[in-house]
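Recall that a protein's primary structure is simply its ordered list of amino acids. Everything else, from secondary elements to tertiary packing, is in principle encoded there. The following example makes that idea concrete.
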Amino acid sequence: MSMNSFTIRNFFRQWKAILPLAIILTFIGLFIGIYYNGTQKQSYSATNEVLVVNMLDTMMPEDLVSIVNSKKTVGDDAMKNAGVDDSCSYKATKNGNVIKITATCGSNDTDPHKLVDSVTDYFNRAIVNIYETDGLQVKTISEGDSEEDITTSQRFLYITLPALAGLAISAFIAFIKLDYATSKKRK
């Protein structure tokens, strides 16, 4: 195979010459993708955004987030009340005065919604008890439905990207071989 210059045609000839290697690398990437996809466990999440109505001037959103995230004050009782298993967890974050509570469960798509509602209810009880003010109230301003954390398109990408990477590596090897062959001819 005479390759005096570096052209696309010669590149594809070189790639064709290492076709068995390209197929092997592509299948290795495919198997790695399938294995990685198999290790990814499906989980579901649900979100409530809540706002504390009639907040005292001394109350800071950071303090409220700490109360929600406290296992002793809210977490343990909320988990027990929701009747969810150990695969479930939740986390609260703040966005201005709005507190976003996100629950994640690996068991099914109904548990996160039960947990996030239970956390909201126990949070309401906790702030009334802590601040000893009856006017405090936690209002849910938006509820997110349970959704899959790993979608079908993500699973497709987990499998195809490593396979394409194997193919790209074979193209890189063909490129290097062609570069070596054409530079050697010039000398």
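The mean pLDDT is 81. Helices lie at 8-17, 19-39, 61-69, 71-82, 111-131, 152-186.
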